[in-house]
Specification:
single chain, mainly alpha, 13 helices, globular
């Protein structure tokens, strides 16, 4: 919206600043951050009054979690509100990739909200049927993947790019949409599974968002793509605005989610943010890199899959409890210890992901 102020620019004046993606990204970050600080506590107060007993605690979970009873959920509303306001304010609204990612985020947020609402009102941990959530997510992801493919350059449409390899492209043809669905839905559910401890999910999401903000900016700039040998996807640089807003909104939320959490993000936040990361990866043609940058989410999801399959086959468990962060809780690790160590792992993986831009 503010980009329209460039119409008043004669060049070299204040209004000319709004032409620069980096300037608007800084504005998006600050706007989302201030929004989070301003409306965080009022939202928590409203959620606490409306939810009463707060998010239900699993009976079979670690004993330490029962002390969190009464903590409100749906804190993802704070992140999504800050993200929406900031993106609409600072991004170019004629950019299709911005709308694809934004609508995927809000749609998955709506699925998560319905699930959180069902859990809170019924006071159980089941929520909306998994089949319904999964089916709705697949539909959203299919539409987003098809839209992204239609806006990609002709030489990249339906192509899968590989990190570390400069010229290799795999033509997925009609399978690109199902592949995009797997990436987006997989990312959404992986982040959702990771969100089990105070602050555990939001910081890795912020790290991944910051990483993909850099990737989107590079991929959308022909000067950088020519230098680095990365595939050029015009228009994706504008996604840096979205990523900056996500980082700022996440930081505002973390202020209240830091241990001991005053609010949980709930499925409202985790499904939405995971879906956003998946959609950005599809738009920027960096789907495989998402598996590196979001490696922590991948491991969390795999721990659940392995646990379920192994238990059905043998009746025994690989982990003391899945997802894997609960395994370490059962082994006696303190919650802050797990959270901070997982943050460190996320940062290392993000640096490896960024390295794929240069190592080709």
């Amino acid at each position: 919206m503010l980009y329209m102020l460039t119409e008043f620019s004669g060049g070299g004046d204040f209004f000319n600043l709004f032409r620069y993606i980096t300037f608007r990204a800084g504005g998006a970050f600050l706007t989302a951050l201030i929004f989070g600080f301003m409306f965080g506590q009022p939202l928590i107060n409203i959620l606490r009054r409306r939810q009463g007993k707060g998010q239900p605690i699993r009976d079979d979970g670690p004993a330490t979690h029962f002390a969190k009873a009464g903590t409100p959920t749906m804190g993802g509303l704070l992140i999504l509100s800050a993200l929406l306001v900031s993106t609409l304010l600072w991004a170019r609204l004629d950019n299709p990739y911005v709308w694809i990612v934004l609508l995927v985020t809000l749609a998955f947020g709506l699925i998560g909200f319905a699930d959180d609402y069902a859990k809170v009102t019924k006071q159980n941990t089941k929520g909306v049927s998994g089949k319904v959530r999964f089916g709705a997510g697949l539909l959203i992801a299919a539409l987003a993947s098809f839209a992204a493919a239609s806006f990609h350059p002709a030489d990249l449409t339906n192509q899968l790019a590989f990190p570390f390899l400069k010229d290799l492209l795999l033509n997925l043809s009609w399978f690109f949409v199902p592949f995009g669905m797997i990436v987006i839905v997989g990312a959404a559910n992986a982040v959702n599974l990771t969100d089990g401890l105070d602050g555990l999910a939001i910081m890795p999401v912020m790290i991944a968002a910051g990483t993909f903000g850099v990737i989107a900016y590079v991929v959308g700039n022909s000067v950088y793509t020519n230098y680095l040998g990365v595939h050029f996807v015009p228009g994706t640089g504008e996604l840096l605005i979205f990523c900056a807003a996500l980082f700022g909104g996440g930081m505002g939320f973390l202020w209240y989610n830091a241990p001991p959490a005053a609010v949980f993000m709930g499925d409202t936040g985790s499904l939405a943010l995971g879906g956003a990361l998946g959609a950005i990866a599809v738009c920027t043609k960096h789907e495989i890199v998402l598996a590196i940058v979001g490696g922590l989410f991948v491991v969390e999801a795999l721990s659940v899959i392995i646990q379920v399959l192994y238990f059905k086959r043998t009746g025994k468990r690989v982990f003391l409890m899945a997802p894997i962060h609960h395994h370490f809780e059962k082994k006696g690790w303190a919650e802050p210890q797990i959270v901070i160590r997982f943050w460190i792992i996320s940062l290392i993986l993000a640096l490896i992901g960024l390295a794929t831009l240069k190592v080709r």
